[in-house]
Specification:
mainly alpha; about 70% helix; globular
């Protein structure tokens, strides 16, 4: 698979996952990451993170952290 865009990178990474992990990460990705047409800037990432959930143990904080973890994992996977 040729990875020539950000959505293709996320989709290719999700295809490498298996079972329940893949299902859960697809749900996370389709909320924001799969809607992007280009690589998000740091400002866009931080704005999304703050809008989704602020502070420790606040509503949405876990979901916001999961999005960041998925973004980081996909980018690291794409480098190799």
């Amino acid at each position: 698979m040729r990875i020539d865009s950000f959505p293709n990178l996320i989709a290719a990474y999700l295809d490498t996952l298996k079972g329940r992990t893949q299902t859960n990460q697809r749900l996370v990705a389709k909320q924001w990451l799969l809607t992007l047409t280009a690589v998000p800037t740091r400002t866009e990432i931080m704005a999304r993170h703050k809008a989704k959930g602020q502070g420790h143990f606040e509503a949405g904080a876990s979901s916001a952290n999961t999005e960041l973890a998925l973004l980081r994992a996909a980018c690291r996977w794409g480098m190799y």
